[in-house]
Specification:
Keywords: Amino-acid transport, ATP-binding, Cell membrane, Membrane, Nucleotide-binding, Transport. The chain is of the alpha/beta class. Helices cover 38% and strands 26% of the residues.
Amino acid sequence: MTDQKVMIDLQNISKWYKDFQVLTDCTTQIRQGEVVVVCGPSGSGKSTLIKTVNGLEPFQAGQILVDGISINDPKTDLNKLRSRVGMVFQHFELFPHLNITENLTIAQVKVLGRSEAEAKQKGLAYLERVGLSAHASKFPAQLSGGQQQRVAIARALSMDPIAMLFDEPTSALDPEMINEVLDVMVQLAKEGMTMMCVTHEMGFARQVANRVIFMDQGKIIEDCTKDEFFDTPRGERAQQFLNKILH
């Protein structure tokens, strides 16, 4: 991986909510085709960190480059940049008043300027890829949580992203629906999609992650290969976390 170009470059990112510092000096790089899992206890800053990558969360110090473009440069067109970085949230964020096909096409037409026909063709191709072709004319409320999350992934992929960000994509799902979403993510990883995933699914991390970032109290405590993280004794805080989550 070291010869692959850096897609996401975070340098000394710090963020405050008024007097409270939520991120402290966070530095890491994610290369093209790399899958990086970000984990840690609740309130450790994981979701805040991943949201800084496409400018959803502003930050007060440091620099983020995505494919060489600076997130914090006032001249950067954040909407254009966000269209190239797919984001899948904890709660699917589908438009409830639009059917699935419309959910898949609206951003392609409005942001990328694609024709309705081209957007529909691409959206339905990705819907098929996540195994939901039969549901194209349904509305989000007619689908299970797992199905809605797979639609959200298909929608993000329809924008031809250079990288995908996942913010706890399975945490709002019933246990039996988690695997259907993880299976799609595993397939994406195998196909070489650059991915940054905030998740507690350690089985997924073991299966597909190249690296694991462990955060605590707004700091990156560990940033290492998955084998090092799971097989070599880590620092005490990471060890406590692993013992709790694995047993």
